[in-house]
């Protein structure tokens, strides 16, 4: 619990939740499988359910949550999550450990407050009344800021919005792509099952698997051997839609951590070249780590700013991938703190940045070449509106995605050239992509 508290405080100071979790688990190598599982669930759950948890605390505390000391606030949040969502943890243990944490963190004078609030909540947890107004109620129950509920309702309707919200809390297996230039899907499945991993084949892509029941990914033989790459099925649609040929030259302008670039390289069977670019040494390092692990030869990582035109690359690429920085609202089921970090103004700022990157990316495509635009969000400003603006102002036309995608994903929009996947509805991350050909 002290480890979880420290991570929550790191997130409060601006650290991304998935970064805090990975670095903490990597650092604490002595933790066993049960401890790692407990830490992960309590950390992610406390973040994921923050709005609901704060709503509950505010009904039983004279001091509002936003007026509390950060340490006390996070101790109470952790406690409420355990009381409401972790049935196997006794209430007495929750309260006692909360008090111990307050003492350990030099808040001895507040241990009575922590104990009183938690015990009062535990006694009344089943009697809590949630807001009656529909959008307010959805915001609290699913712990999603109300402005997001209103935005989704306006774009997709209330029924689909509830389906998406419900999908955020469905159990999430790890989605991996098989690097078939190294082994067949059957060989990879056999190895995973031999190590006790539960494997489910994807319905959207014959080279994708969903795996669960393993301890550490790094301990799986197929991961160590570079036979699998962690990548959501939605993200794999980029490589499928791009459909590279063996000798193509491909530029990925925002590539880190490299999943889409590696997919393209794998599809070209070691031929051609993928130029995987990103903004910082850290991000380039992430791409290089994956290149090294998978021992992929037809890919190179370079540090380049996608907002600045690279004159040497003008009309050189057969395919350009522009998976641009976005609000990330399609992946809030995995990166739980994203929903607290963004707002309407940031979405508008991102739409401007995305247009700037698209402007440069367009220059790199050969006449007759392909540009794939993608995001991991579900807002029209960042997706359909950007594509409409782009095709009106640049010599590109949308091309049907239907020849490349599985029949289950075919729709009126895929025939037009773009796909919007919704969390909960498509059983993947929320994701957008469009395929455009340069005239």
Task: Please give a structural write-up.
The protein has 439 residues and is of the alpha/beta class. It is 48% helix and 15% strand. The protein is built from 19 helices and 12 strands. The strands form 2 sheets. Strands 5, 6, 7, 8, 9, 10, 11 and 12 form an 8-stranded mixed beta sheet that branches. α5 runs parallel beside α7 and α9 crosses α10. The longest helix has 21 residues, at 344-364. The protein is globular, with a radius of gyration of 23 Å. The mean pLDDT is 95.
Describe this protein with a few key phrases.
single chain; 439 residues; alpha/beta; 4-stranded antiparallel β-sheet; 19 helices; 48% helix
Helical coverage, percent range: 40-55%
Query: What is the 3D form?
Result: globular
Number of helices: 19
In whole angstroms, the N-to-C terminal distance is 58 Å
Sketch the major β-sheet: 8 strands, mixed
Q: Give the beta-strand count.
A: 12
Unreliable runs:
none
Strand content: 5-15%
Question: What Rg, in angstroms, do the CA atoms define?
Answer: 23 Å
If you average the pLDDT, what whole number results? 95
């Amino acid at each position: 619990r002290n480890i979880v508290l420290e991570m929550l405080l790191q997130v409060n100071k601006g650290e991304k939740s998935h970064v805090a979790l990975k670095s903490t688990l990597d650092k604490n190598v002595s933790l066993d499988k049960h401890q790692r599982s407990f830490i992960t669930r309590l950390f992610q759950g406390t973040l994921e359910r923050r709005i609901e948890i704060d709503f509950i605390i505010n009904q039983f505390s004279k001091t509002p949550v936003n007026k509390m000391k950060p340490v006390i606030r996070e101790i109470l949040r952790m406690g409420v999550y355990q009381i409401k969502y972790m049935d196997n943890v006794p209430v007495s243990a929750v309260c006692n450990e909360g008090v111990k944490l307050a003492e350990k963190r030099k808040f001895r004078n507040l241990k009575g407050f922590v104990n009183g609030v938690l015990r009062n909540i535990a006694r009344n947890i089943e009697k809590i009344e949630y807001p009656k107004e529909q959008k307010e109620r959805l915001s609290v129950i699913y712990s999603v800021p109300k402005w997001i509920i209103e935005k989704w309702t306006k774009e997709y309707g209330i029924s689909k919005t509830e389906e998406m919200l419900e999908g955020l809390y469905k159990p999430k297996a790890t989605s991996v792509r098989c690097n078939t230039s190294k082994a067949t899907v059957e060989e990879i499945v056999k190895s995973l099952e031999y190590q006790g991993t539960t494997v489910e084949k994807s319905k959207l892509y014959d080279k994708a698997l969903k795996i669960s029941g393993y301890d550490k990914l790094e301990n799986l033989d197929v991961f160590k051997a570079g036979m699998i790459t962690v990548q959501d099925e939605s993200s794999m649609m980029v490589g499928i839609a791009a459909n590279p040929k063996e000798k193509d030259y491909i530029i990925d302008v925002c590539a880190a951590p490299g999943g889409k670039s590696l997919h393209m390289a794998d599809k070209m069977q070691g031929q051609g070249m993928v130029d995987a670019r990103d903004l910082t040494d850290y991000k380039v390092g992430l791409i290089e780590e994956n290149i090294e692990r998978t021992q992929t030869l037809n890919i190179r990582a370079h540090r380049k700013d996608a907002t600045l035109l690279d004159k040497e690359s003008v009309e050189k690429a057969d395919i350009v991938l522009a998976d641009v920085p976005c609000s990330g609202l399609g992946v809030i089921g995995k990166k739980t703190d994203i929903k607290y970090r963004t707002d309407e103004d940031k979405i508008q700022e991102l739409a401007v940045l995305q247009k700037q990157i698209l402007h440069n990316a367009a220059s790199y495509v050969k006449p007759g070449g392909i540009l794939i635009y993608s995001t991991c969000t579900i807002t029209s400003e960042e997706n359909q509106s950007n594509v409409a603006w782009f095709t009106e102002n640049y010599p590109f036309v949308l091309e049907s995605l239907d020849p490349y995608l599985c029949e289950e994903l075919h729709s009126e929009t895929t025939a037009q050239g773009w796909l919007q996947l919704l969390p909960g509805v498509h059983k993947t991350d929320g994701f957008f992509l469009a395929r455009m050909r340069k005239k």
